């Protein structure tokens, strides 16, 4: 079967979509039939430039920044088109060419004009204005970029919904997202990742205990909520330190907030660190906090730290709740006081930390099983052939 996998973003760009698409494409290219022949002839198309990345190291060909004619020709020559994200042009071309199209949803672009399910510029969770028909709220939300741009985003959301209603399958990484997007032929397939479940991070007794955040320093990741919670812990005279691992445009503002909360010496910014440095830094961490305000359809950072055997405290976004199950703690999104309560529970109870970390690793092993994900995608592709 010829499989064309379209992903707007791909390596060397770094992010959850890029990680998943690479894992999926690599895994499918290695699937063999009973006679040892490759079951899929995978080709990947992306708009991301190589920037020195050596595509020859991958077990599948990559077409970068294709023209519209190249994209059309590639779609016409494939058996099944898999679009990672609700990208308009490839979905339109796929349906025009009468090819089986599978859309894997990595955002909220079919139910929210900005794709984040967030109210801008405040960065607060959106209750679902678009699907509720509160379209003036949607237009107002995105007007910071100009009313014409806001109108364009709003109109394209309708177009995406129309296109996705006619595809062979809509894949959602969580059942929660599948219910939210309200599209036909939705199948939940949790993300699976090659090399996700490495050896657990060796626990090291740290005094005081270390709390970590890992991710980009942008408003939607909710780091300000963690800093505010740390201020509450300081005033309660709890012993702790916070490591903020990552970088981004909000770093300067967050450093100012740390000083305002009188947390100098208790909160440290590491900047961006590589995988080897990250593992070493996490050796002394006893809690990972994922305080995102929105924009999350799965929660790769949640799953990664579950697999490391580190207890996770996450905001109560639907995707996080589903991925964590009963192996972590959640708090009301954006509520620093509620986060401080959950952190206090773990800081005061080493046995609870150890128990949750062990359970989280076990859940990650089953929930994010790469083989289960690949088998589920194979079934979707075979079923898609009968859809058109």
Report on this structure.
The chain is of the alpha/beta class. The chain has 2 domains: 2-194 and 369-385, Glycogen Phosphorylase B (Rossmann fold), CATH 3.40.50; 210-367, 3-Layer(aba) Sandwich (Rossmann fold). The protein has 15 helices and 15 strands. Strands 3-2-1-4-5-8-9 form a 7-stranded parallel beta sheet, sandwiched between helices. Strands 12-11-10-13-14-15 form a 6-stranded parallel beta sheet, with helices on both faces. The radius of gyration is 22 Å and the shape is globular. The protein starts with a strand and ends with a helix.
What's this entry about, in short?
The protein is built from 15 helices and 15 strands. It has 388 residues and is of the alpha/beta class.
List the helices and strands and how they pair.
Blueprint: E1 2-7, H1 16-29, E2 41-46, E3 62-64, H2 68-76, E4 80-84, H3 88-96, E5 101-104, E6 118-119, E7 124-125, H4 129-132, H5 135-141, H6 147-165, E8 169-172, H7 175-181, E9 186-188, E10 210-214, H8 223-235, E11 241-245, H9 251-260, E12 267-271, H10 275-282, E13 285-290, H11 300-307, E14 312-315, H12 318-324, E15 329-331, H13 336-348, H14 350-367, H15 370-385
Helix pairs in contact: 1-15, 3-6, 5-6, 8-13, 11-14
